[in-house]
Amino acid sequence: MTVIGAGEVELDYERAGAGEPLLMIMGMSGTYLHWHPAFLAGLQQNLETIVHDHRGVGASTRLEGPVTIAQLAVDAAALLDALGIESAHVLGISMGGMVAQELVLARPGLVKTLTIGCSYCGGPDATLGDPGALSELTAAMIAGDRERALRAGWELNTAPPLRDDSDAYAEFCDIATRRSVAAGVVMAQMQACAAHDTHDRLAAVAAPTLVIHGTEDRLLPYPNGELIASLIPGAKLETMTDRAHLFFWEEPARSAALVTALATG
Fold first, then answer.
1. Between the CA of residue 222 and those of 191, 242, 244, what are the distances in Å?
2. What is the pTM of this model?
3. Fewer beta carbons within 10 angstroms: which end of the chain, N or C?
4. Percent of the chain with pLDDT over 70
């Protein structure tokens, strides 16, 4: 654990690997422990990974009140500034992909390449997730039933065969035990995601961009990936067939190779 001042907050972060820097921005309810070890190992062969916990998570500054995706993007930029990094490759997953969108729009010079995974851009054409699954997860969190919430989160984020892998689920639960995220923080993040809208601004993105999305994503369905790729000039869409929201757990080697190819190509 390393904590650094980043603008108005302190952020818990880690750096590892060798090569050009890759800022990795985690999604809603996640911590930097949720980056799959095999995915990180694949990236770190050619890149220096920089992972961090959002405000309200882990040892980062406590979250007081609501938060916006734009604020989280300011935090991410401030982290790079604090580390003396003039530009980096950026990978954002789910809510982290929304943060990455706001980051590249606000500070385009900071972003060498952009990878957006399983994310959402808002606007009239965006597609929200499975209402039933989301309701179950929200109800479990409000009820304070940790075991029920973990299982609901796992079911929502994965597809077979990973969904049925007891060892993988145990790893998922262990991460939540080691670094839990308060229900109030998750709800604030959920509200921030609901308000996110870059739909009409993505045409301004000039960074080389890769969009990765699984066809079985129930949280943010596949058409969102198609939409984001269509709105960013020159963006490439990589389809993860039969994979869900945690595609980088389901196919860590392939996911790392895709991000690395964009960054080093």
1. 21, 11, 9
2. 0.96
3. C
4. 98
